[in-house]
Amino acid sequence: YGFLSENADFARACEAAGLVFVGPSPAVLEAFGDKAAARRLAVECGVPVLAGTDALEVPDDARSFLESLGAGGAIMLKAVGGGGGRGMRMVHSVDEIAEAWERCRSEAGAAFGRSDVYAEQLVTRARHVEVHEAAVARSDEHVRDALGVDGQLHAPHAQAQRRGAVVAGPQ
Q1: Chain centroid to CA 29
Q2: What's phi and psi for 80, nearest 5 deg?
């Protein structure tokens, strides 16, 4: 199944076996497992995103996008089904596209089982910030149990902290 926490088929297999998959629903995993579709959804919801493309058909599509950024523009070719920094290649000039295209698609196919790629404008010297939300299906008590008395879950190199109200949905 690859990365189990991000695999809609695995989540469905758990459901079919009567197991509780601790993670998003298969529908959510599908929506966000396709990075090009996730970009479209973000745009539809008014979330600002970098200049980018849908899934690209041929290297010339990447070339056209790079050229549209003007002098000094650069792109990141990225695996549509990827994550974790795999299946990504920086491209600073049209001369780099062919090799980056082949390597990105090859790595994406091996790692994620699909080799399609898309492109985003490259931002250099960027800071990487991720926002993760955790929720449980039953009650706030489970969240308190998981996060501890002070609402924090600590790991060696990361920290999660509960912010704001926890809203319990229908059982």
Answers
A1: 10
A2: -65, -40
Task: Tell me how far apart the alpha carbons of residues 39 and 23 are, in angstroms, rounded to a whole number.
Answer: 21
Residue 54 tokens, joined: 């849908």
Helix (H, G, I), strand (E, B) or coil at 43: helix
Which tens digit of pLDDT belongs to each residue from 2-32?
567 778 889 999 999 999 888 888 888 888 8
- Per-residue pLDDT tens digits for 98-131: 999 999 999 999 988 889 999 999 998 877 666 6
28 φ/ψ angles, rounded to the nearest 5 degrees: -70, -40
Rounded to whole angstroms, the Cα distance separating 20 from 16 reads 10
Please tell me whether residue 87 adopts helix, strand or coil conformation: coil
> Two tokens at 20?
């509780």
Residue type at 7?
Answer: N
- Asked if 145 and 135 count as a contact pair (C-beta separation under 8 A), the reply is no
Distance CA 134, CA 148 (A): 14
Q: What is the pTM (predicted TM-score) of this model?
A: 0.69
The token pair at 105 is 């698609």
Query: Going along the chain, which residue ranges are E strands?
Result: 75-79, 88-91, 117-121, 152-155, 158-161
DSSP structural state of residue 42: H
| 110 burial level (CB within 10 Å; 0-12, 13-18, 19+) | exposed
